[in-house]
């Protein structure tokens, strides 16, 4: 997997893009990718190029949510393939994230 | 350093001794190979300088013996040789020499070679020490893992009630895979099930599984219902688990009396209900997994307590599984999928044990004899008679004497807690009621709802029989509005030769009722509205009211 990040509006809008398999091997890389941004930023997780995600990856989304202020977090997950959408739906993550 | 010089030519020995002592080494000497081996054994030098040609025993043989005796400890042996040429030097090395120096001796070279050997020796000692430490730690970890596996396996076994109607596949030996299965008998007349899957493998999920097992087992055994149990488990693992980890779980209650199924699914694959015509219900995950939200979180309340209830027929079967089943991959990275599983079930409804069928087909599909350790399955065959008969496994510290206790619940407490499991747990602490748990639960439940619904809330019993939904709604509203009041329970246990009598009195702060008119009604019209009283009298014989009608006394008698 690889994570790339970019931001606009002086870091107010952050986009994290996932490529390939999103699984337990990616903990460190994913954390490094969001940690440099402010917790008040609006995050967009671009999954257009993500092939797969496992339950550890769900855990990483929770860590991002915590970084971004927990209940006050503003995180969008976009571009999910049907298989990934299904995994998010089984875990009912639409209750915590805006999934488009 | 202590250096052993083995040489039969005395002048060589003297020169080497002088040179080495100048560099502050301690020198011991031997005049031939045999003597050299003896000195080595007694004095354990750090380095050996060895001549090749000697009487009695030559340098080659002595080297071999010294290397054997040194064992794991690396003892450098430097050959002193007058032989020149590659062949001779190769032979020295082959015979076990670590290096060689030529005669006549050059002090600088000698010094450098000794220093080099000392470095190698130090390195070897460090590696050896680290190896030993690693071996020790490794043994310790393995030992602890074995211990943890046993504790976990015991817990898991304790967590599944033994019954012919339950089939499971689960590998507790592959300890830390994070999957769990539980089935525990409730005194309400049904069985509570849990099929769960912690994120990640390893120690954290295993440690968290332990309180989950304990809570599920204890709370179910004394009659708590699923919402209370789920809340408590969520609370516990939210405290314990590191952030980003959670427990996907499907809890369900198979009610043997009402013949119904109640399901809470948070993050697990669909739960199937099937009969001889195939799968008829999919109970999909509607909640977040446990451990993500704290119990005080806004979303944790109503939003994450979505239950589904369906009625069951005798012979219906319930099939629960972890995602390891549908994600199992064959050699071509093709996964088994839910579609394949559903078809497999639909095609084999006549088979007796669906878990075995799926296990077999899954092995066939992945083309291996052994399934992955995260494949977990549970099947329940709904034979309600068996469900009601399934054994309790509640442990208690028991005495056999006489005892009394009373407990009074105020309105605030009644709003927040279900008093029945609380009292059942207390009673079971002082006396082993495990074989009477069902009837005890029914008696105390009836007495409690009689005191609360009729005594305090003054709900209409006729409504319960005609429109239970409206009744429950009114009950909810009234209990919130209630300002003051209490229910007071008195327990008195009298042991006798056959067993004992538990006498229970319940007094509420309500106005009571007109006993005469109710009894007259009962005599003429045995309708459903007094079913609670009928049940009490069938379990306890006589039901005695005080003259105001706000206190009931029953005597439950059990033979040993």
Note down, in words, how this protein is organized.
The complex is a heterodimer of chains A (about 100) and B (about 550). Chain A has helices at about 25-35, 55-65, 80-90; strands at about 1-10, 15-20, 40-55, 75-80, 100. Chain A is of the alpha/beta class and about 100 residues long. In chain A, strands 1-2-3-4-5 form a 5-stranded mixed β-sheet. The longest helix of chain A is centred in the middle third of the chain and has 13 residues, at about 55-65. Chain A starts with a strand and ends with a strand. The relative contact order of chain A is 0.19. Chain B is of the alpha+beta class and about 550 residues long. Chain B is built from 18 helices and 20 strands. In chain B, helix 5 runs parallel beside helix 6 (about 205-220), helix 6 runs antiparallel to helix 7 (about 225-240) and helix 14 runs antiparallel to helix 18 (about 530-540). In chain B, about 35% of the residues are buried. The chains are: A alpha/beta (about 100), B alpha+beta (about 550). The interface between A and B is medium-sized, with 17 and 25 residues.
Shape call of chain A: globular
- How would you characterize the largest beta sheet of chain A? 5 strands, mixed
What fraction strand of chain A?
A: 35-45%
Helix amount of chain B: 40-55%
Strand segment tally of chain A: 5
Distance between the termini of chain B: 82 Å
Lateral arrangement of strands in the main beta sheet of chain B = 2-1-3-4-5
Amount of helix of chain A: 25-40%
Number of helices of chain B: 18
Q: List the strand order in the largest sheet of chain A.
A: 1-2-3-4-5
Low-confidence stretches of chain A: none
Describe this structure in a few short sentences.
The complex is a heterodimer of chains A (100) and B (560). Chain A is α/β, with parallel strands linked by helices and 100 residues long. Chain A has helices at 27-35, 55-67, 82-90, and strands at residues 2-8, 13-22, 42-53, 75-78, 98-99.
């Amino acid at each position: 997997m690889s994570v790339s990040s970019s931001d606009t509006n002086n870091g107010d809008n952050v986009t994290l893009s996932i490529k390939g398999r999103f699984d337990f091997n990616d903990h460190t890389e994913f954390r490094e990718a969001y940690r440099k941004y402010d917790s008040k930023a609006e995050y967009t997780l671009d999954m257009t190029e993500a092939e797969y995600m496992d339950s550890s990856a769900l855990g990483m989304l929770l860590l991002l949510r915590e970084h971004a202020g927990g209940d006050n977090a503003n995180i969008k997950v976009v571009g999910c393939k049907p298989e990934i959408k299904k995994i998010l739906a089984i875990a009912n993550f639409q209750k915590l994230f805006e999934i488009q | 350093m202590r250096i052993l010089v083995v040489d039969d030519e005395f002048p060589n020995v003297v020169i080497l001794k002088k040179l080495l002592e100048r560099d502050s080494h301690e020198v011991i000497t031997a005049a031939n190979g045999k003597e050299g081996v003896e000195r080595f054994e007694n004095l354990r030098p750090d380095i050996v300088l060895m001549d090749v040609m000697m009487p009695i025993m030559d340098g080659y043989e002595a080297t071999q013996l010294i290397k054997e005796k040194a064992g794991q400890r690396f003892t450098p042996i430097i050959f002193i040789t007058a032989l020149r040429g590659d062949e001779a030097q190769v032979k020295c090395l082959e015979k076990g020499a670590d290096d060689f120096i030529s005669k006549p001796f050059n002090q600088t070279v000698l010094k450098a070679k000794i220093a080099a050997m000392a470095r190698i020796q130090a390195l070897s000692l460090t590696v050896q020490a680290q190896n030993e430490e690693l071996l020790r730690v490794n043994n310790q970890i393995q030992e602890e893992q074995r211990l943890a596996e046993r504790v976990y396996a015991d817990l898991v076994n304790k967590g599944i009630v033994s019954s012919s109607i339950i089939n499971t596949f689960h590998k507790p030996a592959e300890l830390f895979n994070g999957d769990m299965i539980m089935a525990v008998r409730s005194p309400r007349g049904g069985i509570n099930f849990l099929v769960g899957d912690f994120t990640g493998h390893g120690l954290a999920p295993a440690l968290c599984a332990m309180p989950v097992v304990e809570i599920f087992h204890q709370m179910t055994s004394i009659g708590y219902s699923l919402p209370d149990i789920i809340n408590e488990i969520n609370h516990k693992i939210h405290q314990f688990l590191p952030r980003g980890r959670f427990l996907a779980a499907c809890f369900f209650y198979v009610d043997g009396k009402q013949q119904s199924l109640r399901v809470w699914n948070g993050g697990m694959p669909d739960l199937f209900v099937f009969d001889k015509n195939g799968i008829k219900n999919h109970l999909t995950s509607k909640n977040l997994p446990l451990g993500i939200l704290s119990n005080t979180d806004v979303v944790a309340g109503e939003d994450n307590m979505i239950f589904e209830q369906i009625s069951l027929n005798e012979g219906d079967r319930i099939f629960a599984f972890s995602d390891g089943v549908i994600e199992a991959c064959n050699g071509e990275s093709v996964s088994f999928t839910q579609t394949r599983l559903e078809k497999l079930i639909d095609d084999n409804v006549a088979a007796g044990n669906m878990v075995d069928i799926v296990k077999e087909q899954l092995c066939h599909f992945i083309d291996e004899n052994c399934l992955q350790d995260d494949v977990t399955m549970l099947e329940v065959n709904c034979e309600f008679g068996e469900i009601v008969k399934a054994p309790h496994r509640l442990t208690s510290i028991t005495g056999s004497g006489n005892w009394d206790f009373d407990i009074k619940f105020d309105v605030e407490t009644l709003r927040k807690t279900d008093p029945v499991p609380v009292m059942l747990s207390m009673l079971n602490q002082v006396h082993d009621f495990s074989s009477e748990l069902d009837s005890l639960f029914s008696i105390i439940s009836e007495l409690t709802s009689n005191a609360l619904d009729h005594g305090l809330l003054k709900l209409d019993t006729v409504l319960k029989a005609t429109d239970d939904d409206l009744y429950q709604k009114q009950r909810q509203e009234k209990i919130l509005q209630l300002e003051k009041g209490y229910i007071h329970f008195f327990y008195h246990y009298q042991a006798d030769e056959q067993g004992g009598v538990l006498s229970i009195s319940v007094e509420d702060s309500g106005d009571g009722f007109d006993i005469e008119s109710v009894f007259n009604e009962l005599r003429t019209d045995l309708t459903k509205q007094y079913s609670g009283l009928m049940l009490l009298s069938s379990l306890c014989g006589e039901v005695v009211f005080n003259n105001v009608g706000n206190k009931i006394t029953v005597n439950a008698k059990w033979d040993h």
